[in-house]
Design goal:
The chain has 25 helices and 32 strands. The strands form 4 sheets. It has a 10-stranded mixed beta sheet with strand order 27-28-29-26-30-13-12-31-11-32, with helices on both faces. The longest helix is centred in the last third of the chain and has 44 residues. It is elongated, with a radius of gyration of 40 Å. It starts with a helix and ends with a helix. The relative contact order is 0.11.
Length: 1008
């Protein structure tokens, strides 16, 4: 029998090849699924390490060392305990020991940390011998220099002991203070400024272990920080790592404190992987279903070719099982062979897509799952073939000899249609109710299949309605085209399949386009510009000055400060062109925002010399009073504050002189404020007045502020923050009068009553989203521009749906004006936003101006991370499945046209002999297939569009349910291009089918 089956297959190779390819696709798709899932999960876990938030990337163990042994021994015992008790494969460990000390009465920390010099930029040399230390910039600013010998008193049993001599070999700064190497992020500054690891905080001095080893009875703390690496998450599941940490924490408590946020990271990765698993599984099931349907139709469509063999077997009295073996064997053999080939091809392609699996147990599990999935695909394919042949095997010889196809469907086909429609309605209801039932996942496919089945049933009836009147009216082209559509049962199930695959592909393309747009929007929104550098500078004013210096035209770079704690983003507004701007933010165009945030203002008063002279008249009511100074607060070009003190004031008019260190023609200083000030609790009486006549540089230098300008009241304003007192101010011909009012100075406080030049708008213009950042009252709104500043008055220039970087709640302000109105040097996360075409030399130029880069982020990096999330990974697989499904649908359509080409060619040839014009035959041939294909594509596209509209989209885009921006709609260009591409492919198949039919008509008419 096997030889007979092989001989039968050799007689019809095209049919066997078709079944072989369909089985290979089904088996290959299912074989690729497990490896794709596991490999993608592995890649997602690795990507989650880079995207992990601060403390989620490390595990920290800390212990107070006993003082009854020397510090070196205690530290060694602790490190050995941790290596034994807490094993985290792929987590490099960094051991650390530190003791408290004092230096000149100031608390410091003397610390040893493994390989610390590799993470530092050191001016001088790394300490290598006992008694050598490297100090930070804070200690260096107190006057300690490289080469100095300092004495630090180590705290022993809570009391500072005798000092030890330490030689300063270098001054360090961390390359990246927020790197996981420096331990958990400091809780007090991880929101409003650049996060800093706790092992770097405080006035720490790093020294070799030899310096600390011999110390006894000291207050010492040791820690081991385990740093997550990509290799760790590649070789070990996040959940297993989190479990290992939690078990160790229980074992080591209470003597050793083990802390981490690894569980949060592991759970987030796990949830992300679940989205991927479900999405890929649904797509694989969808592919499997399409392949089985295609196989069923392929076998059913080619069944007529096997009728002759079956008739002969039955007429010769062959046993029923022999007939079954012959007919089923012709389908089963190529299906099994295709399944074997698909098994290895699918596994190979999955390896190319996601890479090889690192863990041995995962490779074994994936291989077992691959074989099982491929076997399931082959088994289903064989069953589909049996079901397709079942009707032929059950028919009598008389029925099998008939050449007319059955028009009526059996009860099984009707029941199948009813079940599909019911399931589709159930799935649509679950989606509409936002339920989480199992039908929700496959509802789009069920609805598309139900629409296709219903349309396939209606198509012949509609065609019949069109055909009869057309034929009666003598319109042969339309009549015969409609009649062929009505009387060709071969094409009825093919119409349902074509509608299904087009709807699935188009729906997937819509989801893909929306997800791609949403990911791009999120990446740009959360980054702010094409490239964003997180930097360190002496202060925010220094950052602003440096960025303007390296990019004077404002084409490439913009300084920005994000104060997450208070929900404010401060930007150098005239340079907003370098930012990524989108109308979805609900903001006007960037140039309108820039104009509103940074309106024109009077020029600042600049000091261009290092010596100032103040002309002032001092009047004070009779009676004793504390000495009062006039303090001119200047701000240097690099943000350096310079306080110039004149006084104490003497009664009458006098000219006072004082140095203005660091101000000159090359680096002028801006007058920030002029204040009446005392250094101690004051009893300055009300009515005390200082009349400011003029401020100039040197005896003969140019006037910084002349008497007329002092007398112009519109150029001055009083302080409005709670940190200062409010004087009474008045302008006139003699200058600016600054008076101490009855309620200016509360009892027991020092006097600090400033006036400010009006070189910035006040109230400060802002754009706001939500109400988180706004304080004050509805009639007096205020914000805190920086986390350390006081509230300042604002005027709301406009509202937004969302503020870049901050989300649906926050405020956008101009950085320069915010600094002036808040009268601070500013704080927060300092950043430099760069345009896409910014030259690489800008980073080096920033370094030359004292701006150090600690992190480099870009929209492309954020986008790559988002595309590693589970929904995106699953969507890629789903898109591939949809494309394969379309190919299957077109292949089934082509096969159906080939099967009916002979009978239809003979029919048209007979009509031609009876006088039917060739033009009519051509119109019917091409028109029938083209109309059929166009209707299927149109119905599939309409089904996908209507389903998306009725379901509200329903596409899961982000694993973390991020909703900072509205979900975009699919682009009209994408919809149009996808429609044209699908239509062109299907119409090409229809045109080829029509051309083949015309060729068959020609051969039939010639008698061949």
């Amino acid at each position: 029998m096997f030889a007979i089956i092989v001989a039968a297959i050799r007689c019809r190779p095209a049919q066997a090849i078709t079944l072989f390819l369909l089985a290979a696709i089904a088996s290959g798709g299912m074989a690729a699924t497990p490896a794709y899932m596991v490999g993608s999960a592995q890649s997602m876990a690795v990507a989650s390490v880079a995207d992990a938030r601060g403390n989620e990337r490390l595990v920290s163990a800390t212990r107070q060392l006993p003082g009854d042994v020397d510090l070196g021994t205690a530290f060694g015992d602790f490190a050995a305990t941790m290596r034994r008790e807490l094993v985290l494969p792929g987590f490099p460990a960094v051991a650390d020991v530190r003791v408290s000390a004092t230096m000149s009465g100031k608390p410091v920390v003397l610390a040893y940390r493994e390989k610390v010099c590799d993470r530092l930029v050191i001016e001088g040399a790394c300490p290598a011998a006992a008694g050598e230390v490297a100090i930070g910039a804070a200690l260096a600013s107190t006057g300690v220099r490289i080469g100095d010998t300092i004495r630090a008193a180590v705290v022993a049993e809570g009391v500072p002991a005798a000092g030890i001599a330490l030689k300063v070999t270098g001054v360090f700064r961390a390359v990246d203070p927020a790197e996981a190497y420096w331990g958990p992020l400091s809780a007090e500054n991880n929101t409003s400024a650049i996060p800093v690891g706790v092992r770097l905080g405080g006035d720490v001095m790093f020294t070799p272990l030899a310096t600390l080893s011999g110390l006894r009875k000291v207050t010492g703390t040791s820690s081991v920080d385990y740093l997550a690496s990509a290799d760790a998450f590649r070789k070990t599941g996040p959940q297993l790592l989190a479990l290992a940490y939690e078990q160790a924490r229980k074992r080591l408590a209470p003597t050793i404190a083990v802390d981490s946020q690894l569980r949060a990271q592991a759970d987030r990765t796990w949830n992300d992987q679940q989205y991927m698993y479900v999405g890929v599984a649904v797509a694989a099931a969808q592919l499997l279903l399409l392949c089985w349907i295609a196989l069923f139709l392929a076998v059913q469509l080619t069944a007529d070719a096997r009728r002759t063999e079956l008739v002969r077997l039955k007429m010769r009295g062959a046993r029923r099982r022999d007939a079954w073996a012959l007919i089923i064997g012709q389908s089963a053999l190529p299906i099994v062979l295709g399944g074997v080939v698909g098994l290895f091809v699918g596994r190979y392609l999955a390896g190319l897509a996601v890479g090889e699996l690192v863990r041995t147990e995962l490779r074994q599990q994936a291989w077992y799952a691959t074989v099982g999935a491929a076997a399931l695909a082959v088994l289903g394919a064989v069953i589909a073939a049996i079901l397709a042949e079942r009707a032929s095997l059950s028919h009598s010889v008389a029925v099998l000899n008939r050449k007319v196809a059955r028009q009526r469907r059996g009860w099984a086909g009707n029941a199948f249609d009813v079940v599909i429609v019911v399931l589709a309605l159930g799935g649509a209801h679950e989606v509409h109710e936002r339920a989480t039932g199992g039908l929700t996942l496959i509802a789009p496919v069920l609805v598309a299949l139900a629409v296709g089945l219903i349309a396939a049933r209606l198509l012949p009836r509609i065609a019949t309605v069109v055909a009869r009147p057309a034929l009666r009216a003598g319109r042969l082209g339309i009549g015969l085209t409609a009649m062929n559509l009505a009387r060709r049962p071969t094409l009825t199930p093919v119409f349902a399949v074509l509608t299904l695959v087009v709807a699935v592909l188009f729906g997937t393309v819509l989801n893909w386009d929306v997800a791609t747009r949403a990911q791009a929007d999120r990446a740009a929104f959360t980054t702010g510009a094409d490239r964003v550098l997180t930097v360190q500078a002496d202060n925010v004013s220094a950052l602003l000055t440096a960025v303007r210096a390296v990019d004077p035209d404002g084409r490439y770079a913009m300084a920005a400060v994000e104060s997450t704690e208070v929900g404010v983003l401060a930007v150098d507004a005239p340079r907003l062109a370098v930012s990524h701007w989108d109308e979805v933010y609900g903001l006007p165009h960037w140039d309108q925002v820039a104009a509103a945030l940074h309106p024109g203002s009077p020029a600042s008063f600049l000091v261009r010399g290092d010596n100032l002279r103040l002309d002032v008249t001092w009047r004070q009511p009779a009676g004793p009073a504390s000495p009062v100074n006039v303090v001119v607060a200047l701000q240097g070009g690099a943000g350096r504050p310079v306080a110039v003190t004149f006084g104490p004031m003497l009664a009458g008019r006098h000219v006072y002189e004082a140095p203005a260190a660091g101000c000159g023609e090359a680096a002028p200083c801006r007058v920030a404020s002029i204040a009446l000030s005392t250094t101690q609790a004051t009893d300055v009486p009300a009515g005390t007045v200082a009349t400011l006549h003029g401020l100039r540089t040197g005896p003969t230098g140019p006037a910084v502020i002349d008497q007329a300008t002092f007398g112009d009241r519109t150029r001055w304003r009083a302080g409005i923050t709670s940190k200062v007192q409010v004087p009474d101010i008045d302008g006139g011909p003699d200058g600016l009068g600054v008076a101490v009012g009855a309620h200016t100075v509360p009892e027991g406080l020092t006097l600090n009553a400033p006036v400010y030049p009006f070189d910035a708008p006040s109230p400060l213009p802002v754009f706001v989203a939500g109400d988180r950042a706004l304080g004050g009252s509805p009639w007096d709104p205020r914000i805190r521009p920086f986390s350390s500043s006081d509230l300042v008055a604002v005027q709301v220039a406009g509202t937004a749906n969302a503020i870049p970087r901050l989300g649906a709640s926050g405020a956008l302000v101009d950085l320069e004006y915010a600094l002036r109105d808040a009268d601070v040097v500013g704080d927060g996360s300092m950043e430099v936003w760069l345009a896409a075409d910014a030259p690489d030399t800008l980073v080096a130029a920033l370094a030359d101006h004292g701006v150090r880069v600690v992190n480099d982020d870009a929209i492309a990096d954020r986008l790559a991370t988002l595309r590693q999330q589970g929904p995106s990974v699953a969507m890629r697989f789903g898109l591939l499945v949809a494309l394969v499904g379309l190919a299957l649908g077109v292949g089934v359509f082509a096969l159906a046209t080939v099967v009916e080409r002979g009978p239809r060619g003979n029919e048209f040839a007979d009509l031609r002999r009876q006088g039917l014009r060739r033009g009519v035959v051509r119109a019917v041939s091409f028109g029938g297939y083209l109309i059929f294909a166009t209707l299927a594509v149109a119905l599939g596209v309409a089904t996908a569009v209507v389903w998306r509209w009725l379901s509200g989209g329903g596409t899961l885009i982000f694993a973390d349910d991020w909703a900072g921006l509205p979900v975009p709609t699919a682009g009209s260009a994408t919809v149009g291009l996808a429609t044209l591409a699908v239509l062109a492919l299907v119409l090409a198949a229809a045109t080829a089918a029509a051309a083949g039919l015309m060729s068959a008509v020609t051969r039939g008419r010639s008698g061949r």
